[in-house]
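hey can u check if this looks right to u? its 127 residues, i copy pasted from the old doc so theres a chance i mangled smth
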Amino acid sequence: MPLLALGPPDLYFPQTLQALSDTFPMADWQQLIQLSQQMQGRLQQLQHDLAEKTYDAQAGGGLVRITVDGKGSIRSLQIDPMAFEGRDSDLLADLILGAIAEGQRRAADALQQEMRRLSPLSPHLPP
């Protein structure tokens, strides 16, 4: 049983669509659909382009270095042999996780920056 029953959809949606149609002429709807399709194409291209880019990060003063792609997937991990000297495994694990988090953050930041650049609402979006 649904938690919230509003009644049959045909009681609400035709009125809503009629109100929207009265407010926005059909030409505006067609332009919105075209704009939506253009944005979808741009976003797909952006996702593809960013997936090919790589972002480097490090932790422990460069003892752990990582490269992630635009999707945040790990492409490479280098651990300096000095990281093993006099350190326990928990500290090394923390360094690795810190480098991964930083690399993924950089990839996510790049995606957000590009999304803002492509959005027609970009002047109104928070940084």
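Residues 28-119 form a domain with the Ybab; Chain: A; fold (CATH 3.30.1310.10).
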